[in-house]
Write a structure and sequence with these properties.
Largest sheet: none
Order of helices and strands: HHHHHHHHHHHHHHHHHHHHHHHH
Structural class: mainly alpha
Distance between the termini: 48 Å
CATH topology: Growth Hormone, Chain: A
Shape: globular
CATH architecture: Up-down Bundle
Number of domains: 1
Helix content: over 70%
Radius of gyration: 23 Å
Number of strands: 0
CATH superfamily: MFS general substrate transporter like domains
């Protein structure tokens, strides 16, 4: 009669179930992107007037976008900070810390006084910069950790599919953030929204952060990083090691991600600015008068036409477009497994380059054309963004994977996302209201990504668990 080896049974390591991985990676990035998009939406809708009340409308918008870009400057620093701990201490604790950091910063934005309050003309924008910088630090570490949580727990041959779990947080977070703003705009007057209603989306983020923390605290370490610990291969200085051993992958990863960032922030932040800008000078004067202001001569001289949609109309159009973003993010996973990451992304990037030449004809074709542009743009966004959850981590050895994928992802955010809204507005202004230069800018960024993809090798079949640098 044999006796069961109960000791061995007790020593079987715990594992994260598929459901727990999905929820933990998805809810974290959903919260992070919700917080990020809440700011992006407010940066267009209310922050220009609330934090820069003494400037003309164009300067207000550019100033608001400049603070929007501060977070992208902070993101590479966040990738180094959280990447260090993610590769040295572990994925779980680092993910909890990044989520908590983002949640606190976002909640505090909802508590800030505005520049309209006497004595806060300087301090209100300055504190907004600090909070925005903190948001960037947090997001710099969040995405990479969530991607590793998904892909380092994925079964063989399923990494690209599981890698889409955290990617879905982007469209879901966008819909939640803008849905909240939409509900508030329907239920509050313009005066109420400007006075206090804009604060509610920031304050409500605290509820989701609590839920996200509860889910993530129940995780166990990923098998890949646990093996690094067991083998004594934990890197003492991950950032130094990744730049020494994987500098080529850092460069390739940054440029592979570049077009993804540019197309997304053009389709969201820029199109919202362009779509809701007055279509005529008379409409701009009427809008200023409705707000109790008179356009200055400088504002009149610098006026360029937009599409003239109301804020609510265009937000609804954006939300419809983002639904396609979500759908094709999920579709991209199986495609990247079947055809390989590189081959699939080469085709999608070529389509993005062509898409850049359609900005003028589609924007000039009325509501149908604008809606078509949003749907096509967000479809391409889903197809290019989805595989990144697997591709960027696959470029790096396990013991520097958190740092390497985070640095590449966030350097791309500086080159692509940080400047995209600012550059797009400047090009729109320079072209006298035409979007032709904006489209060419997108195509040019697509060419850089195409070159990076041509240089890199396929990563689908690379060993993923025990490789170290």
């Amino acid at each position: 009669m044999s006796i069961p080896n109960t000791t061995a049974a007790l020593e079987v390591p715990k594992a994260n179930s598929r459901g727990r991985v999905i929820v933990a990676s998805l809810i974290g990035t959903t919260i992070e992107f919700y917080d990020f998009y809440v700011y992006a939406t407010a940066a267009v809708l209310v922050f220009p007037a609330l934090f820069f009340p003494n400037a003309d409308p164009t300067t207000q918008l550019l100033s608001s976008f400049a603070i929007f870009g501060v977070a992208f400057v902070a993101r590479p620093l966040g990738s180094i900070l959280f990447g260090h701990f993610g590769d040295k201490v572990g994925r779980k604790g680092t993910l909890v810390a990044s989520l908590l950091t983002m949640g606190i910063a976002t909640f505090l934005i909802g508590c800030l006084p505005t520049a309209l309050v006497p004595g806060w003309v300087f301090w209100a924008p300055a504190l907004l910069v600090v909070m925005r910088f903190t948001q960037g630090l947090a997001l710099g570490g969040e995405w990479s950790g969530a991607a590793l949580l998904a892909t380092e727990n994925a079964p063989a041959g399923k990494r690209a599919i599981w890698g889409t779990f955290p990617q879905m947080g982007a469209p879901i977070g966008f819909i939640l953030a803008n849905g909240v703003f939409l509900i508030l705009s329907f239920t509050l007057t313009t005066a109420q929204f400007a006075a206090w209603g804009w604060r509610l989306p920031f304050l409500l983020s605290a509820v989701m952060v609590i839920i996200g923390l509860w889910v993530r605290l129940k995780l166990v370490e990923t098998p890949a990083f646990q093996k690094v610990i067991d083998q004594g291969e934990v890197s003492k200085l991950p950032v130094s090691r990744v730049f020494k051993t994987s500098w080529r992958q850092l460069i390739l990863g940054t440029f592979v991600m570049l077009a993804t960032y540019v197309v997304f922030y053009l389709m969201t932040t820029f199109t919202l600015s362009y779509g809701t800008a007055p279509a005529t000078l008379e409409a701009a004067k009427a809008k200023a008068a409705a707000a109790g202001k008179t356009m200055t001569q400088d504002a009149i001289n610098s006026f360029v036409a937009g599409l003239g949609y109301t804020r609510n109309e265009f937000l609804i159009m954006l939300i419809v477009g983002v639904v396609f973003f979500g759908i094709f993010t999920l579709v991209s996973g199986p495609l990247a497994e079947k055809y390989g990451r590189r081959k699939m992304l080469l085709g999608v990037t070529a389509a993005i380059i062509v898409f850049g030449f359609t900005f003028v004809p589609l924007f000039g074709a009325g509501t149908v054309g604008v809606m078509a542009l949003l749907i096509i743009g967000f479809t391409l966004m889903g197809l290019t963004f989805g595989p990144m959850g697997a591709l960027l981590p696959e470029l790096f050895p396990t013991n520097v994977r958190y740092t390497g994928s985070a640095v590449s992802y966030n350097l791309a955010s500086v080159l692509g996302a940080a400047v995209a809204p600012f550059v797009a507005v400047a090009l729109w202004q320079a072209a006298g209201g035409s979007t032709v230069l904006v489209g060419l800018y997108l195509s040019a960024m697509g060419v850089l990504t195409l070159i990076a993809l041509l240089v890199m090798k396929e990563t689908r079949d690379l060993e993923y668990v025990s490789n170290v640098s």
